[in-house]
Specification:
Number of domains: 1
Strand order of the largest sheet: 1-2
Helix content: 25-40%
Distance between the termini: 32 Å
Number of strands: 4
Largest sheet: 2 strands, antiparallel
Shape: globular
Number of helices: 5
Amino acid sequence: MDVNAMDLSAFECIQCHACCRQPGYVRLRPAEPDVMAGFLQMDVHEFIESFTILTEDRTGLSLIEQPDGACIFLTEKGCRIHPVKPAQCRDFPRAWRFSEFEDICGWARSRKAPVTSRRP
């Protein structure tokens, strides 16, 4: 275990949406397209066609991204599907995180010790 790993026991999302702007898979669990489609009042087939892609390993679906790499459901007001967001999003950053997490997450940045210069 990394002794410098950030303690996430007090993590509380401040909705900076930095994690939502990171390119990469948002892998969906089998029942999630149905739940999200229902929330959006869409047919699940229409939802899958409009908002998902088959993962490269062809084992599941992932949400598509906006041209800049952000999640397709990220708007100026936040997550369009927040009440039914995928487990991958709900589990972040406790169950998983990407290597730049501590540098881009607003909550993590607010807790990092300021870098001080050392003088000889």
